[in-house]
Amino acid sequence: EDQVTQSPEALRLQEGESSSLNCSYTVSGLRGLFWYRQDPGKGPEFLFTLYSAGEEKEKERLKATLTKKESFLHITAPKPEDSATYLCAVRGSGGSNYKLTFGKGTLLTVNP
Amino acid sequence: DTGVSQNPRHKITKRGQNVTFRCDPISEHNRLYWYRQTLGQGPEFLTYFQNEAQLEKSRLLSDRFSAERPKGSFSTLEIQRTEQGDSAMYLCASSPDRLPYGYTFGSGTRLTVV
């Protein structure tokens, strides 16, 4: 069974203080690792998909990287508007290869 | 493209009542998914449609839950005889068949059972 563990559960940063979020995963044949952002009371908003170890994707202050066992979401010089819960999910090549398995998320708070 | 639309946004119901939620996916997306999210947890898979065919139901989906997608367009999720444990955010997502698979989520329906 696919498993995703995210750490830390919560992270508080000062504006401009760069950091990284971790996503460790166990999956039978990775067919995609997904990062989503979720604001309170809203659905997850797609950020990135990574497919193979060594792949990197960037969007504004966010950069996602992937190894064979984990993914990192690096946040450079964050702003208060980056405050949200960041969710990691995997899709495997097992029997149910169309569904995503999510971690519990990291709640990021960026203080001005 | 107006994204994935879910209605209602919020629903408060008394225990034992039936409720129905609607999801309108992105029009060109063949695949439609329902997930459930409780406070402090990530979304959990409930069921999946490819066009009008329901191809998988999670063991989380008890007999009180039923989902349909007539004509492969919108989908409904019905919960019969609601229980307090059903209180959660119900999320709908859709995606195309082709790679890269982009799962787009709706804003969800927040269900509170009192």
What pattern of helices and strands is seen along the backbone of chain B?
EEEEEEEEEEE
Largest interchain contact = A-B, 24 and 26 residues
Q: What is the straight-line distance between the termini of chain A? A: 41 Å
Structural class of chain A: mainly beta
Distance between the termini of chain B: 36 Å
Low-confidence stretches of chain A: none
- Low-confidence segments of chain B, ≥5 residues, pLDDT <50? none
* Contiguous helical run count of chain B: 0
N-to-C order of helices and strands of chain A: EEEEEEEEEEE
Question: In percent, how helical is the residue content of chain A?
Answer: under 10%
Number of helices, where a helix is a run of at least 4 consecutive DSSP H or I residues of chain A:
0
Using the alpha-carbon principal axes, give the shape of chain A. globular
Strand content of chain A: over 45%
SSE arrangement:
The complex is a heterodimer of chains A (112) and B (114).
Chain A: E1 3-7, E2 10-14, E3 19-26, E4 30-38, E5 45-50, E6 56-59, E7 62-66, E8 70-75, E9 84-92, E10 101-102, E11 106-111
Parallel strand pairs in A: 2-11
Antiparallel strand pairs in A: 1-3, 3-8, 4-5, 4-9, 6-7, 7-8, 9-10, 9-11
Chain B: E1 5-7, E2 10-13, E3 19-24, E4 31-37, E5 44-50, E6 53-57, E7 65-68, E8 75-79, E9 88-95, E10 104-105, E11 109-113
